[in-house]
Design brief:
Number of helices: 10
Strand order of the largest sheet: 5-2-1-9-22
CATH topology of the largest domain: FAD/NAD(P)-binding domain
CATH architecture of the largest domain: 3-Layer(bba) Sandwich
Number of domains: 2
Distance between the termini: 33 Å
Helix content: 25-40%
CATH superfamily of the largest domain: FAD/NAD(P)-binding domain
Radius of gyration: 21 Å
CATH class of the largest domain: Alpha Beta
Length: 367
């Protein structure tokens, strides 16, 4: 009887696993992939899609098609519950029970601070990205847009929206058309030179921004900050950073940092060696919390693939060693980008070309 590997989520790491399975099927192992959507969108190209530089089909991977090529069964659903002792998951929509011999999670993170009054009713969240893509397709880019969240995704999205607005004929480019509010420093940086560079670009491109200001309450067309300031909007985009999925804590697995699955450097749960995890949904034991970035997921992917093979073959597993600081490329609109590495930051069109080359090559691997 074949053993069973269940892949939960279609993130960066599991895309790599599917590609490897096309070339090297694991003998006597039946593989299923569980994901709530048949298309996995690539967050690194979202800002370019918003700006109109990429078509929707350029930023998405067809999971069903990729699974078929890899000999993997695709199940369009999500995990409602996990029982690590009986080695089963229950799916949310169909209530199907799936048994496994090994399971791997690559489900990303959720959006933080959605419990603030009014957010769920009036805010548009970037996750799940599949629904956010539909929102962008229907968006009137002439509207006043308030972006709550000053991390990488919030800054990229705000600048891409600004670039898209500049493409609208006759639209007055007033600074309040795109506003960013963040509860801390931009990008969460402690380096004043990097933050001043970010502020300079935001100002140069005509955005309004508020740092170290928290949203206390959301109404239908305005928010109230902790300073008492009221900011009006036509559309509110909520990009307040990552929050751990509820699944792992509810399942009784050991977690860290308020809910991220705690794994060893082998990417195995510290509780159950047949539970693996990678990407934004995990915290790695013996390492300080890593930034939630696809850069780390891409580096984890070959380690997870090797360890799944070794696990089923009864071989010794290998460790993942994160490298910090990591290099970041952030699109700033109009085919320009930041390069950030440690305490160094640069900005030019050349870095956008580099980012576009890296992102496009990544997508071509899976399309």
């Amino acid at each position: 009887m074949p053993r069973r590997l269940l892949l939960v989520g279609g993130g960066h790491v599991h895309l790599h696993i599917l590609k490897k399975l096309q070339q090297h099927p694991i003998p006597n192992v039946e593989v299923n992939l569980l994901s709530p959507f048949p298309i996995q969108y690539y967050s690194g190209m979202l800002s370019g899609f918003v700006e109109g530089l990429y078509a929707e089909e350029q930023i998405g991977v067809n999971l069903r098609k990729l699974c078929e090529a890899a000999g993997v069964s695709f199940i369009e659903d999500r995990v409602a519950s996990l029982d690590a002792v009986s080695q089963t998951v229950i799916t949310e929509r169909t209530r199907r029970m799936l048994k496994y011999d090994a399971v791997s999670f690559n489900i990303g993170s959720e959006v933080a601070a959605t419990d603030i009054p009014g957010v769920k009713m009036f805010g548009i969240r970037v996750k799940p990205m599949e629904l956010f893509i539909q929102f962008i397709n229907q968006l009137d880019f002439s509207e006043r847009i308030l972006v709550v969240g000053g991390g990488a995704s919030g800054i990229e999205l705000a600048l891409s929206l600004r670039a898209r607005q500049r493409q609208q004929p006759g639209l007055e480019m007033s600074p309040d058309r795109i506003t960013i509010v963040t509860s801390g420093a931009l990008m969460g940086v402690s380096n004043s030179w990097i933050e001043s560079k970010l502020m300079h670009i935001l100002s140069r491109k005509g955005l309004t921004f508020y740092t170290n200001k928290a949203v206390m309450k959301v109404h239908e067309n305005h928010v109230i900050l902790n300073s008492g300031v009221t900011l009006s909007f036509d559309r509110l985009l909520w990009l307040t950073g990552p929050k751990a999925p509820d699944l792992f804590g509810k399942s009784g697995l050991k977690v860290r940092d308020q809910g991220y699955l705690l794994v060893n450097p082998t990417l195995q749960s510290v509780d159950f060696p047949n539970i693996f995890g990678a990407g934004d949904c995990v915290a790695i034991d013996a390492y300080a919390p890593l930034p939630k970035s696809g850069v780390y997921a891409v580096k984890e992917a070959p380690v997870l693939w090797a360890n799944l093979l070794h696990y089923f073959n009864g071989q010794r597993l290998v460790n993942y060693h994160p490298h910090t600081p990591s290099l970041s490329l952030l699109s700033t609109g109009n085919r320009e980008a930041f390069l950030i590495y440690g305490k160094v930051i640069f900005h030019s069109k050349w870095f956008w070309k580099l980012k576009n080359k890296i992102d496009s090559r990544f997508m071509r691997n899976y399309q």
